[in-house]
Structure formats: C-alpha cells, structure tokens
Inverse folding.
C-alpha cells in the first residue's frame, strides 16, 4: 500500500495498545455521547451513532459502558457537555494536518493543540486553510483474502473503490454506505482490520526519511491529547521508512 494507506493499518494496531491504557476508550465514549446527543440513541436511526458504537465494539468495549455513554448523550444520565472543534495546520515538510476535537473546555483544548504544534515544529493555520485538501470517506482495511471475492462483495454492496496492494486491500465508501459494505464483506467471511469514517487527502505530500520522524512525532503528540479525537494528515511516507519508525 502507499505510505498513507499503510498508516491506517498501523493506527489500527496502535489502537490495541491505546485500549489497554484506557485512552482509546475515553475517546470512543465521547464520540458515542456526542452522536447520541445530536441524533438520538437509536443506532438504526442514527448512522453516526451506529458507526461510533461499532468502533467501540471493535475495540472490545463492554456493552454496559456503551449503553451508559448513549444514555449520557441522550440525557438519561448526567454527563459532561462536550462541544466539537477543529484545528488546521502544517507539520514539518509542509504536511497538512486536520485535527478534530471533542472537549468540555475549548480554551484548554486550543492551548494543548497549539502547544503540540509549536513543540514539534509545526504551525497552526487559519480555519479552512487545509480542510479543502480532505474528503470524508468510509474506509475498510482488509489485510488479506481473495481479490475477486473482495472486489465483488464490496462493489455490489455500494463501495466506491477497492485499492489492492501487496499488503492488503483498502475499500472506500461514502460515509453513509460504510455499515452496509462492512456487513457485506463480513457476511462472506472476509476478515477486516478496521472500518471507520475518516478524512482522505485528495492529494498527498511526499515526506523523506529525515522529515518523517518529525511529522509522526507531531501527529502522535496530538493524538495523545485527551481532547483530540482524530488527526488526519496528507503525508506519503515510503513504506520502508514508515515500517522502521513504527
């Protein structure tokens, strides 16, 4: 896969470690609460909630924890009032970064994001400075399988594209079709690494071996912030360099 596509698989494996530390659960709980608050607690009627709940289940979050998060979101239980925010900027090498935040303290979140950019050689941009570079898509990572079977099942279920490489397959969908395509793949017995709605760069920025560690340090520093839900980047790091760094 390309250096950017490979990053999806690496982040999925990293999530297993984050789950053990509890950090991933905290982020997933926030996303469930906000989705339930904005669209109601029915996963069938609220596809955003359905995706958030499925992602939590993929991370082995207990069902009781998921249900409590939904109830806090709908107001059935007391909970913090989270608000959404986004920040845009650049990492070393001119790599565009789009940062999504869910926070109960916007001033704290802004200060933490600004500090991470500054500490790791990045620079914050104005709203809209890099958002145009990204497009929201559903992305399913299939580590292996029969190419014809994957292509047929995915495309018949409404996938927009299937990118096949030596390391596996990346299935792309519209955000609204992610659940249906995932279900179609699973129904055929095809194993999945991950399935999520993400932001895909429309073009990528090549990053050399010297700059790659600086870019990844900034990305990981941002991802480690409690208020940050997602960090999207347009880097394309050579696979061998990416493997040596992760």
């Amino acid at each position: 896969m390309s250096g950017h596509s490979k990053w999806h698989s690496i982040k999925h494996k990293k999530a297993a470690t984050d789950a053990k530390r509890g950090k991933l659960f905290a982020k997933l709980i926030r996303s469930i609460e906000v989705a339930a608050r904005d669209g109601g607690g029915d996963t069938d009627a609220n596809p955003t909630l359905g995706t958030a709940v499925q992602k939590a289940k993929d991370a082995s979050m207990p069902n009781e924890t998921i249900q409590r998060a939904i109830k806090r979101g709908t107001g059935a239980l007391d909970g913090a009032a989270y608000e959404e925010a986004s920040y845009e900027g650049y990492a070393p090498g001119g790599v565009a970064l789009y940062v999504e935040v869910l926070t109960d303290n916007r001033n704290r979140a802004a200060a933490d994001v600004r500090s991470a950019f500054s500490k790791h050689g990045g620079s914050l941009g104005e709203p809209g400075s890099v958002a145009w570079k990204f497009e929201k898509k559903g992305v399913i990572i299939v580590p292996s399988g029969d190419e014809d079977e994957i292509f047929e099942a995915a495309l018949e279920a409404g996938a927009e594209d299937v990118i096949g490489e030596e390391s596996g397959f990346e299935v792309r969908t519209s955000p609204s079709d992610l659940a249906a395509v995932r279900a179609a793949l699973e129904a055929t017995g095809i194993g999945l690494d991950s399935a999520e709605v993400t932001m895909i760069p429309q073009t990528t920025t090549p990053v050399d071996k010297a700059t790659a560690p600086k870019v990844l340090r900034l990305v990981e520093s941002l991802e480690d912030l409690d208020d940050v839900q997602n960090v999207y980047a347009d880097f394309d790091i050579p696979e061998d360099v990416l493997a040596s760094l992760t």
The chain has three domains: 3-74, 83-132+203-245, 133-201.
